[in-house]
Amino acid sequence: MIDLRSHLTIAAIATPQGRGGVGIIRLSGNLALSVACALSNLDKLQPRHATLSQWWGHDGLIDSGICIYFPAPHSYTGEDIVELQAHGSPVVLQMLLKRCLELGCHPAEPGEFTRRAVLHGKLDLSQAEAVIACIDADTERAANQAQRQLQGEFGRKVEALMDEITGFLAHVEACLDFSEEEIPDLFLDQLTEKLTLQLVLPMDAMLATADFGERLFNGVRVAIVGAPNVGKSSLLNALSGHDRAIVSDIAGTTRDTLEIDFDIHGVPVRLVDTAGIRQSDDLIEREGVRRALESARQADLVIFVADASRPETWTCEAGYDVAVLNKLDVSPVSIQSEIPFIHVSAKTKEGLLLLVDTLANFLGEQQATEDVYITSHRHRVAIQQSQNHIKQAIPLLGQEATLDLAALHLRQAWSALGEILGVGDVEVILDRVFSEFCIGK
Ligand SMILES: Nc1nc2c(ncn2[C@@H]2O[C@H](COP(=O)(O)OP(=O)(O)OP(=O)(O)O)[C@@H](O)[C@H]2O)c(=O)[nH]1
Ligand SMILES: [Mg+2]
What we know:
The longest helix has 24 residues, at about 155-175. It contains 14 helices and twelve strands. It is α/β, with parallel strands linked by helices. A six-stranded mixed beta sheet has the order 3-4-5-2-1-6. Strands 8-9-7-10-11-12 form a six-stranded mixed beta sheet, sandwiched between helices. The chain is about 45% helix and about 15% strand. Strand 1 and strand 2 form a beta hairpin. The two termini are about 25 Å apart. It folds into three domains: about 10-125, Probable tRNA modification gtpase trme, domain 1 (Gyrase A, domain 2, 2-Layer Sandwich), CATH 3.30.1360.120; about 135-210 and about 375-420, Four Helix Bundle (Hemerythrin (Met), subunit A) (Up-down Bundle); about 220-360, Rossmann fold. The site of guanosine-5'-triphosphate has 23 residues, from helix 9.
């Protein structure tokens, strides 16, 4: 499919809506330089130099600022780019953009700059996705993963796997050219073993990072449930480091659910405090309990809190993932219970680090032993598909009659990985990926 817009020079405000010290307009395409020169009343712009310029409209001066010209192909998109660093006023930026459009530019579509970078080979598709991931990252750890992906670390891993597949494919295709007697059995046995060692297992290791990696960007909901007065609100305050929820020794203090954002080892977490679960005649409290159970159902992870000094609180109606026995400071005795409680004190903060580590493991941190994580569902699915084809190819390598089918699976395994990088017929994938971008990126 031909990109009908590729000959157009596009323009957009690249900085976020609202006021700021500086606002940037980006132009990309053949006309970028001439439009910028016409706007600035200049004959030329020196490449990669910050040129102090005045920008003119029909009715006089619009604004002044810095103009930078990046000639093709050494630019973000691979085309001629000009960046106008204006004052960060929404009105001024709109006036400047309007003038650029009058001079021949077209409004950029969401993600179109990055899309052009991919089409001109400046970024592979996984790097382009890393641009969104980097912009969207909520925690330092997520930003760090996005940056590694943007620098191509993840892409290189995928490329290495693709090269391995190409190597195996060459062997299998060579075997196809020989008759059965000429192919040593040992050779095919070795091939089977090597496919497992060099492809299936490394893919397993990568896939094991996906739960944690995706959560780094998508975040999780964690609900705290348990009987009244066990210290749920105190635990929420202690974990988040904010005195957010009201705490009192009156059972039934929390009625409405209450949410606070923090992070567990870099995973953005929305922590939900809930009403203590018990039978009650009070209408409002009953509604609170209903909401507590509903929160537990909707959460990705449920923490059940019990009070060490009150065994009647040690059973939980709602399903849960992690059980916490609170008030360790008042009941330090060893507890006889079937439940693998983590002992903490929300008051003295004892045991909280262990609790946080346990929660992180629940979110998949321990399985993520690789340096670079799979951070997108699209990548996870592509690697799973590729691995499935390899697993199907392995038993087919045993006999000459099925070798060509094995080769077909290997080719499909290669293509599935290629989708991650945007290799092959990619227009459809491009449309899907870039629909998530904002304008000006
Ligand atoms: N000694 C001690 N007291 C605690 C601890 N955690 C909470 N408390 C006390 O236990 C009482 C109840 O705490 P909350 O955090 O309000 O308990 P809750 O589970 O949210 O109670 P409801 O909202 O009524 O369901 C308060 O008096 C807290 O100060 C702890 O670790 N040690
Ligand atoms: Mg409470």
